[in-house]
Design goal:
36% of the residues lie in helices and 21% in strands. With 239 residues, it is an alpha/beta fold. The strands form three sheets. The chain has a five-stranded parallel β-sheet with strand order 2-1-3-4-5, sandwiched between helices. Strands 9-8-7-6-12 form a five-stranded antiparallel β-sheet, with no helix packed on it. It has a two-stranded antiparallel sheet with strand order 10-11.
Length: 239
């Protein structure tokens, strides 16, 4: 029986050991895996991808090698494939390569070396983003959210939140744990723009986090955006 989020993933990397480890691990969790290392420049998707991948996983280091340095153009073409989110593997949590990937359209990133659970969380979130219903509830060990009734509870008591914070929570929950980039994912300014989102994240941490200074759920990715971490370890998103 397929596990949650299982689908078809295309792995693009020039590192055979990394591909082997990821492929074995993902197949053991009922993902169908296609590996590809060439054929990128002639097509918007890697040779061997076939029809209907759920998610593309792209090693940025491999992309640089396979495209003779023309990484930005190649990544933009990959990210342009309708309905197929791209998760990139990066060498560093800082620097311009992740920012460039996000600007090219990548749904999210994972920094090497990474725990398998982190990659699985990203893949499952990316798959659900394209095919699953929008979650209506968030349940964690520390708080519960009901977006329909706009009810937040912590320690068995209701926490009042302003409308602006509920609009921000709706954006974060819709992303299902994936990176929320304000300019890209909220072009209409539903949550009030980048400055308002930054202030809203601060308020939400004070209201919901056990330790606002060391957030477990409402995470900032410096220079990139924000995410609501509600994974198998931290909590669940429910429709």
């Amino acid at each position: 029986m397929a596990g949650p989020g299982a689908g078809r993933v295309v792995l693009l990397s020039a590192d055979p050991m990394l591909v082997r480890v990821m492929a074995v691990s993902l197949r053991a969790r009922n993902w169908e895996v296609v590996t590809a290392a060439t054929g990128l420049l002639g097509d918007p998707v890697p040779a061997g991808a076939g029809a209907g991948p759920t998610v593309l996983v792209v090693d940025l280091g491999a992309l640089r090698l396979l495209t003779c340095g023309n990484r930005s153009t190649a990544l933009s073409r990959l990210c342009a494939w309708p309905g197929v989110p791209v998760v990139v593997l990066a060498e560093s949590p800082r620097g311009r390569e992740i920012l460039g990937a996000v600007q090219a359209g990548a749904a999210d990133f994972v920094v090497k070396p990474f725990p398998l659970r982190t990659l699985l969380d990203r893949l499952e979130a990316a798959a659900a983003l394209e095919s699953g219903p929008v979650p209506e509830r968030v349940t964690t060990a520390d708080f519960d959210l009901d977006l329909n009734s706009r009810t937040a509870r912590r320690d068995d008591r209701e926490i009042p939140l302003p409308g602006a914070d509920w609009r921000l929570l709706a954006l974060l929950v819709h992303r299902r744990g994936l990176l929320l980039v304000p300019a890209r994912d909220d072009p209409a300014g539903t949550a009030g723009g980048p400055a308002a989102i930054r202030d809203g994240m601060r308020r939400l941490r004070i209201a919901l986090e056990p330790d606002p200074a060391l957030p477990r759920y409402l995470i900032s990715e410096p220079g990139l955006g924000y995410r609501l971490r509600a994974s198998h370890h931290h909590g669940t998103l429910r429709s």
